[in-house]
Structure formats: C-alpha cells, structure tokens
Design brief:
The chain has 273 residues and is of the alpha/beta class. It contains twelve helices and five strands.
C-alpha cells in the first residue's frame, strides 16, 4: 500500500495541535504533532541559514520522516508542525506527490501567544547570541533545544538591527518571514496538492469539510468537528491584548503579511477557554 504524506505548515500557535487532536483516532491516518521536533527544527533552520547542504537535509529525512512513512501501514501519514516550513523544497524532492496544508492564524494572536505564553523559548538575547556564535564558528557545539533554533538574519547589518530591537519585534519578524517562506516555497507545488486554511475557520463546517476532503477523509465529520469546540494545547488559558506600543510595532512589521493572508490589521477576537 502506498502511503500519502501530508505536511501541515505553520508558524506555531496556529492550531497544529488542534488538527492533530481531531485526527489522531482516525483509522486510516498516522498523524504526529511535531514529529521529532527538536531534530527537525534544527535541521530545517540549519538548511535555511545555509549551515548544512541539501544532501545532509536529505540524509536527515531518510532517517526520520521518510523512514516512518515507508514503514507506515496507514493510507495517510501526517506531520503537523512549525518545524517544517524551511525545508519545503527538500520535502518536495524527497517524496512522491506530497501534499501541503498552509495553516495560518491571525498574526495578532500568534505573536501575543508567543510573547506572553512562550517567552522562555522565543528569541531571548542569550540564545540568539549562542546561535550567532555557532553560525560564525566561534563555538563548536550548540544544543538542539528549540530555544536556540529560530532563524536570525545572515546579513551583518540586518542582524545588528534585529538584536537591538525588542523581543516583541523579533517575534513579529518571525511571524512575517515564516509565512513569506511558506508562501514562496509552495509556489513550486501543484495547485491540487496544496491547501490554504485559516485557523479562524475551524468551526466553519463547510470550510473544515473542504480541508478534511483534501486530506482524504470522506466521513466522520460530526465527531471530528466536535473536537474543535474547546481549545487544546493551551499553556495559559488567557487572552492577551497587544499594548499600544506593541500595536505600533506589529502594524509596522506585519500589516502587509496580514493583508496578503486576508486579515484586517485591526482584527481581534477573544478565545473562549
């Protein structure tokens, strides 16, 4: 039996776990939330930043995703992860006819969630400094802990600005650039093999059924939709609004990306926990 690989791409804090949670009991699907996450993130970002070659990323995929897919006894194999966006091209080359889902969420909610709920792992100066030293070959080793492996500018001038700005700015840049990266690299994928989905549409029956039909699910919709009624994978069940200063930073950094993906810059909603 040939197994269909599907990769769900996102910035993180955008519903990858909700999708996983909804599909984990489907008999024909083998699904993971962030499959081998730390190793995948490290290799993906290393490839993106030019630290490893395409040959090395291919070798990593042979030992990880490809091995799992080849040994799956399911019709569909899915990884729902924010570690994948920087390795889209190698994934296209490695697998026959892979499918991709571009999962996005309102940037205001994403950057607020990272800043207020996951501040310990996102763009702290100490962690950035160690990654920079590693990329400049000033230190020989760097742990694969995810706090170290988020992209930083390669250009010296751009890096100087990046590190001098606030952590909130750096998270905004991350959201802007990862979505640009996904969109740019999905241009190389046949239209029938890619699907754009807003997390805000998770309770829209018509749009969610379109998503699951793209995945290959033809029944069991009521049960799956029921799983979306309550948020999951929540570190702190609280909504954090942006401060006035943060709103200025967000608008200057992310307004164009918000518009491209069909969001209004002032758009905001409360999550019911």
């Amino acid at each position: 039996m040939s197994t269909q690989p599907i990769f769900i791409l996102s910035s993180g804090r955008s519903g990858t776990y909700s999708i996983y949670n909804a599909l984990k009991d489907e008999k024909e699907i083998e699904i993971y939330h962030e499959f081998l996450f730390d190793e995948t993130l490290r290799n993906s970002v290393s490839y993106h930043m030019g630290l490893i070659s395409e040959k090395k990323i291919s070798y990593f995929l042979n030992q990880s995703h490809s091995f799992s897919i080849k040994n799956s006894n399911k019709k569909i194999w899915i990884d729902s992860s924010n570690a994948l966006p920087w390795m889209i091209k190698p994934l296209i080359k490695k697998f026959h006819n892979p499918k991709f889902i571009f999962l996005i969420r309102n940037g205001r909610k994403v950057v607020s969630s990272f800043f207020n709920k996951y501040s310990d792992i996102m763009y702290n100066k100490k962690d950035i400094d160690l990654l920079k030293k590693y990329t400049d070959k000033k230190i020989k080793y760097l742990s694969s802990e995810k706090k170290y492996w988020r992209p930083i500018p390669k250009n010296k001038k751009d890096f100087k600005k990046f590190i001098s700005e606030s952590k909130f700015y750096r998270i905004c840049k991350y959201w802007q650039e990862i979505n640009q990266t996904i969109r740019k690299n999905l241009k190389h994928v046949n239209k029938k093999n890619k699907f754009f989905f807003k997390f805000e549409d998770i309770n829209n029956r018509k749009k969610t059924e379109e998503l699951f039909k793209f995945i290959g699910i033809k029944k069991n919709f009521p049960k799956i939709l029921k799983s979306f009624e309550k948020p999951v994978n929540v570190r702190y069940p609280k909504n954090f609004k942006l401060t006035k200063k943060q709103q200025i930073v967000f608008k200057s950094t992310c307004s164009e990306e918000m518009k491209i993906n069909g969001y209004k810059i002032e758009e905001y909603y409360q999550v019911k926990y």
